[in-house]
Design a protein that fits this description.
alpha/beta, six-stranded mixed β-sheet, 310 residues, 14 strands, three-stranded parallel β-sheet
Length: 310
């Protein structure tokens, strides 16, 4: 953990993200429950909520009246703390609100950086992780996952005036930032073994490092890098995609009841158009790209990741 240094976002970048988020909300002033303003998930009436047996994982969550969900605080458009209202917002946050509403409880959002997501589940710090987490074979051995709700792709980010880096082959001898505990720590060691990796706790640190010239490039999921470009238009994506990264909701190992329920919620969001609306609001309007919700399960996601170039 890097203390207060993680929070040193540039003021102009913060205001840009906040303005974009507020604009996408249409100026909605409604307040939500613990953990986030700008809620878009339709609240579920208590009378409509299935009650789960006491002593089961979902029954315990309902008895508490809240579900603790780990999300990113510094990764627009998936999870970020809006400086204008101090609320956590983004695509992952909206998925979390939908899960909470389906149980008739309040969402309690906590920060889950890449390196502590799995420990949070194992220790019971979080009931659910929605934190841009790729489903892969190693992680499936440690925790359970929902079916994928988004598929990102690995890319490289540089400054527009950097003419030396046009793809992964150009990273040799360059300083490249990525996050501890992310899949890119291994990916870059495989695909760019001669790059000098700078491993940090959060993506906001990578953004700061490339802005001040301490690193030459950042590598992670394309949508996370798009969030950096939203904050600083002097940055650009270069090269071909490095990997495919199916995101799943992380759940404690053996909590099959929770897995089944989250999958039901995700299926509903995909079928009734809510997933598409949420994508368009938080991602599509910035990338300009159309997308369809993933239609694969966890096993297929693991196989997809195995196809990534080594």
């Amino acid at each position: 953990m890097v203390g207060q240094r993680r929070w040193r976002w540039a003021t102009s970048a913060l205001l840009t993200v906040a303005a974009l988020a507020l604009a996408s909300c249409g100026g909605d002033d409604e307040e939500s429950g613990s953990g986030g303003g700008g809620a878009e998930a339709t609240p579920t009436r208590q009378a409509d909520v299935e009650r789960f047996e006491a002593g089961t994982p979902l029954g315990d969550i309902q008895d508490k009246g809240e579900i603790t969900i780990g999300v990113k605080y510094d990764v627009p458009p998936f999870g970020f703390k809006n400086p204008q209202n101090n609320q956590v917002e983004g695509f992952d946050v909206e998925i979390g609100k939908a899960v909470a509403a389906s149980l008739g409880v309040e969402p309690k959002f906590i920060e889950a950086i890449s390196d502590n997501r799995i420990p949070f589940l194992q220790k019971g710090t979080a009931d659910l992780i929605l934190s841009t987490m790729t489903i892969n074979e190693e992680r499936v051995g440690e925790i359970d996952f929902s079916d994928p709700y988004f598929i990102a792709r690995g890319r490289i980010l540089t400054k527009k005036d950097n003419t030396e880096i046009k793809g992964v082959a150009d990273l040799a001898g360059k300083d490249v930032c990525t996050v501890l505990g992310s899949t890119y720590e291994a990916t870059l060691k495989q695909q760019a073994p001669d790059a000098d990796l700078r491993l940090v706790d959060t993506y906001s640190e990578c953004l700061e490092l490339i802005q001040n010239g301490s690193v030459d490039a950042v590598s992670t999921d394309d949508v996370i890098l798009t969030g950096m470009i939203i904050q600083d238009d002097s940055l650009q994506l270069v090269g071909d995609e490095l990997t495919q990264e199916p995101y799943g909701a992380g759940i404690k190992k053996g909590a099959t009841q929770v897995v089944g329920h989250v999958n039901e919620v995700l299926d509903g969001l995909k079928e009734d158009g809510t997933w598409q609306q949420t994508y368009d609001r938080w991602i599509g309007q910035y990338t300009g790209e159309d997308a369809q919700p993933p239609d694969i399960d966890v096993d297929e996601a693991v196989e997809l990741v195995k196809q990534n170039p080594a």
